[in-house]
Amino acid sequence: MTAPVRMRWRQARRHVVLVRLLLGLPWLVAAAVLGWRLGGSAVAVVVALLAGFGLAVAIVRVLRTMDQAWLASALDARRTDMDDSTALLFADLASLRPLQQLQRARLEERLRMQPPPDLRAPWPWRALALSWGVAAGVFALLAWWPFDGVGRAPAGSAQDATVAATAAPRLQASVLRIEPPTYTGLDAQTVAVLDAKAPAGSLLTWRLRIAPQPAAVELEFLDGERLALQREGDHWIATQRLQRSRLYRLRIAGATEQPPPPLHRLDAVADRAPQVRVLEPETTLQLRVDGQRQWRLVFEASDDHGVAAQARLRIVRTEGSGENQTFHEHVRTLAGQGAPRLRRYATTLEIADFGLQPGEDLVARLEVSDLRQPQPQAGRSASVILRWPPPAPPDIAGLEGLARQVLPAYFRSQRQIIIDAEALIAERAQLDEPRFAQRSDSLGVDQRLLRLRYGQFLGEESEGAPRAPPVDGHDHVPPPPPPRPAVSPGGIFADGSDALPPAPPPGQRDEGHDHDTPTPTRADADGDDHDHADGALADGVFGRAGDVVAAFGHTHDIPEAATLLDPKTRETLRRALGEMWQSELHLRQGNPSAALPYANRALELIKQVQEADRIYLARVGAQLPPIDEGRRLGGDREGLASRGLPSLATPAAEARLHEAWWALGDAAADPAPVLDTLQAWPGGARLDDPLALVAAIDAVRNDPACSDCRDTLRGLLWQAMRRPAGGIAPRVGDDTGARYLRALRDAAEQSE
Question: Is residue 355 part of a domain?
């Protein structure tokens, strides 16, 4: 290698080093300033050394690429007379062939005649301007960023240092780092305050600077937990996973306890379950049209942190009806399109693939899950139904007496009760005793409603209702009124006048009386050939039109009740009702395992009833019996009693809440017992901000004389109180009614 070539090579290498230094120097200074702002001069030196080492490594890696091979290619690119043979100048002369030695001699002669060109690259002015401009913006940001000077040693005299050593420890600066869970996709952030709002499951790291150094530092949470900080150099560090919203205060050993340190909030933002919306079809129920072969489905799923790329489409085809209805389930996997937080799932189903027939339904529902770890949350869409309408029935005008093999819609409920009971038994290990008993009692209520509906086929239209009053046709001295019960439960009239009179002895029914109205015969009484309800609802509320019709009318206008069953079928249905009653009994007692055998036997009996022949009656109007006017406005108050009003008392927990509200209004009273009660009260979730109630309780506990703190707590308690249920207040007695009764009594005595 000749001397001019070696000189050009060195110039190019020095130029590359200078360019790299000019590009990296502002960022090295920025890193050092950032370290100084965060941790003081020691941290700044460490950061500067690390940044300088990184810059040096980058320069060395660039210089390694500028070797003899690079030099040869650079000379060949800039000198065409080198014949792309510059590499011969750097080869060992003894290893060259005669022809190569001749070519090398020519190249050396050409380089002596004409010096080698400048191999330095042009100055990257644009890159240099961009680097220094961005670095200047970073310097401005660091100057504007508020810091309390963590790690900077204040300048002062020895006397100042002695005073600081004997003073109470105080918090000089704080840094709280928040690292959200990985699945959220959120970046970690650092705040210079002790309050934070982050997704649930985030990792929190406290880094505190306290001067002078205390013996111990800990975080005291209001729920009783304490988290001790560990000392690392001049800092105190602690780490905890944020699972729920909490309040805490910083406790420093040796610091002043009065006033107490301020409270700080940690708000945990819960991950919401994904929401699924149906875009196509526009309606939940869609009827298949003639010639339709495909069914287009489009769903949209959204989540705060993203939903899975794949979702499950559950498709159920129904076959049959009533208790004979069966279900065929299919599952397909759909791939979503779009951003993770808003995905769209679309598919087109071939109707023929599912074997859909007239009168059957195809029900589809999409199930998606989010990205939460370790337990993803699931979301389901509303069910969409494709219905193939059944063929139109033939014209049956005038054939009302023919049998129909169609069951009411509620005939399929017994199977569902069995399925729910089996599911409840399977979940018993995961449920506590009150929750298990509540769900079992709810199934018992469903069983009771189903039993009452089936009872309509046997004339059991209500339970425990009184019969209608008899029609009295005497035209002279009326018989004495029948005895009435003291209280007429379930009766329509409050005075019990609708109670059933006792049957007269056999020889006294028609003796010595002329009747204008013929006595109804048994044939007339049984002319309907079925049973009717003889009462109303059991609440005894007067004036309900439905109750009056149910007590005195017919129900032939209800298709499900206007049916006649043969005696054998009626007996089978009666046995089914008995099994339902036993099933209801055990379900209401919280023992679904004992109720299952009865429920299964009831289901088998219902299937037998379904296969029986039935005759449907024609609809008739209401036939109300005439009202016995001789029993009205008689003024007889025998057997009447006052009905008790429902209790307006509040539950015990609400009563304690009311007492606390009143006690806090008394400034002279000690609030400690009340605060202990409120601290254990579990109803804070009713408020929009439950932590505000906890903070208000703590404020009153620390300063009982603070009237503003008491008012704040009372305001929160007022919002949390349940509004009392409306009730009937007892009327204030007066002398008006008494005077009226005395006047009636005096008038009766004078008439005698």
Answer: yes
